[in-house]
Design a protein that fits this description.
By secondary structure, this protein is α+β, with helices and mostly antiparallel strands. It is built from 14 helices and 21 strands. The longest helix has 19 residues, at 375-393. Residues 107-135 are annotated as: Disordered.
Length: 548
């Protein structure tokens, strides 16, 4: 039955479902307030938040690339799996193809947040977010426990599968820490959530020590670092150790190291802007704090590591605008690698630029803050972060370009140079001659070089951003066998000596953890070159190697 009455009943029922007594109006309000864009974009986000709890899983099927090659019976089976109801008992093949085309359009146009399942009732793979790469490394969730200061942290790592050599990151090393920082702080390259990230004010408040907290608060709302980037940022601002390595606060050595590191950074990657709304304890005085996190790799020819910068501003109804994100901290972390040929963490320096004071800081105050000597070096990071936040929030060409350079938008696109290109260039300068270069299972890249009677194998795993050095003798023998089978003359001298070094590997920091491992960022080639130059020199294979 249809007509004005039935149609009106449907609309009124929809209204009741969306804004009735059972609706989560607070989530709609949050979505509206934190979404960037015009009224339409913000209104759409609010309605979406109300619809999400109401939608039911849909059947999604695998559609062949050339469905016209299927028989009528195969098409009918496929359509029944998709729960398509036919208008007549025995539809023709052309009718089935028309139905299949409609199913294909539906599946392609469904929002990524609509739940989906396979015909057997199991969960279907999650849909790619809009603009996400259509191909990439097979990833799986893994729990990291190497940094107990932040409890357990779930990160995405390369999925292990048969036939691919396993190249795990060093537990507690800088490579693993880089992935952890991306996960905790929400640092990405276009994969971050839409709009501002609303921090949990009660969870931030729960970090205040009991000894100084004189106002009532909700003891049930404490969150782990992995559950809220504001909690993670506050822990990074105050923990005594990171991965068991002591953090040195506001030391003069840290100021010198940070100045060198800032002059030798690669590409900065940013979180979305965070927003914290709250009230002064015990006072009817509202405040607003905004903050952002930035992470970069660095290498200056002698040392290398990571930088983490958290900064922002605020508005207090009593004190007005401020250049600090109080009641959040602002600080710079400078982390070094223990040596150029090892992923271990060397030293960790922290420079504090803003602290909410002894009655809010989780360690009772940060004492004397760092001097402002680095303000000029950090200002470009802040201003670039403003542009990055707008680029991530853009829905067009700017967003695509930002993600191509800084995120995962260029997976398996061959226009960019590779880490192995850097390695080959550096080694050729000191007499190593290329014998073979190839790509193996799962994207593993291999470079076989020779200098004198020594053969060296250089491996690069773009999925984990690790470069390894090993003796290349056995690979040289394989190289000779293949050359003989192909009718290629063997080198005049086929006698080789083992490389004197042990197998060693490092992570190339400063690349996006989930991109294709290529050097897409404007500063990435130079940063990779400096890291490899130090790695080769310390490993004894790159004497005289210099970066250019």
């Amino acid at each position: 039955m249809s007509g004005p009455v039935a149609e009106n009943e449907a609309w009124l029922a929809a209204l009741e479902a969306l804004v009735g007594a059972e609706a989560d109006i607070e989530s709609a309000k949050t979505a509206f307030e934190t979404t960037r864009g015009d009224f339409k974009a913000r209104f759409s986000a609010a309605v979406e938040s109300l619809i999400k709890p109401l939608v039911r899983p849909e059947i999604f099927i695998d559609i062949p690339a050339e469905p016209e090659l299927l028989t009528r019976g195969e098409l009918e089976t496929l359509m029944r799996e998709a729960e398509v109801v036919f208008s007549r008992a025995r539809p023709s093949k052309s009718e089935l193809l028309s139905h299949l085309d409609a199913v294909k359009r539906r599946q392609e146009n469904r929002p990524s947040w609509v739940p989906r399942q396979l015909p057997d009732g199991s969960a279907a793979p999650a849909a790619l977010a809009p603009g996400a790469p259509q191909d990439g490394w097979p990833l799986q969730a893994e729990t990291v426990t190497s940094f107990p200061e932040f409890d357990e942290i779930t990160v995405e790592v390369l999925e292990s599968y048969e036939g691919r050599p396993e190249r795990k990151l060093m537990s507690g090393g800088v490579g693993e820490l880089e992935i952890v920082l991306h996960a905790l702080l929400g640092v990405g390259g276009g994969e971050a959530p839409d709009g501002d990230v609303l921090l949990d004010d009660v969870a931030i408040e729960a970090l205040v020590p009991d000894a100084v907290c004189w106002w009532p608060r909700d003891p049930e709302r404490s969150l782990r670092a992995s559950q809220d980037p504001g909690v993670a940022a506050e822990l990074l601002a105050t923990v005594a150790t990171i991965g068991g390595v002591a953090v040195a606060d506001n030391a003069s050595a840290g100021l010198d190291l940070a100045a060198r590191a800032l002059a030798a950074t690669g590409d900065w990657r940013y979180s979305r802007r965070w927003r914290l709304d709250g009230w002064e304890p015990g006072e009817p005085i509202p405040f607003l704090a905004t903050a952002q996190a930035a992470v970069a790799g660095w290498a200056d020819g002698g040392e290398s590591g990571l930088l983490v910068y958290v900064y922002g501003g605020g508005l207090n109804a009593l004190d007005g605008l401020s250049g600090t994100p109080l009641p959040l901290h602002s600080y710079l972390l400078c982390i070094t690698r223990s040596s150029a040929s090892d992923d271990g963490i060397g030293v960790v320096h922290r420079l504090g630029f803003a602290c909410p004071g002894e009655h809010w800081c989780r360690r009772g105050g940060c004492g004397e803050l760092a001097p402002t000597d680095l303000d000029g070096d950090l200002l470009p990071v802040v201003t670039a972060g403003q542009a990055a936040d707008l680029a991530i929030g853009d829905s067009g060409r700017i967003w695509d370009e930002y993600r191509r350079r800084y995120g995962t938008g260029s997976v398996f696109v061959d226009e960019a140079e590779t880490v192995l290109d850097c390695a080959e260039t550096l080694l050729s300068r000191v007499g190593w001659q290329e014998l073979e270069r190839s790509e193996w299972e799962g994207g593993m890249e291999i470079l076989l070089v020779r200098r004198g009677r020594t053969c060296l194998l250089v491996e690069y795993d773009p999925a984990t951003r690790q470069v390894a050095l090993a003796d290349g003798g056995s690979w040289f023998e394989l190289f000779l066998e293949i050359a003989e089978e192909d009718g290629i003359p063997a080198p005049d001298d086929v006698d080789v000596e083992p490389w004197s070094g042990d197998r060693r590997q490092i992570s190339v920091v400063g690349l996006h953890p989930h991109a294709d491992g290529r050097l897409h960022g404007p500063e990435s080639f130079e940063l990779a070159t400096r890291q490899l130059s130090m790695f080769f020199r310390e490993s004894g294979v790159g004497e005289g190697t210099t970066s250019s």
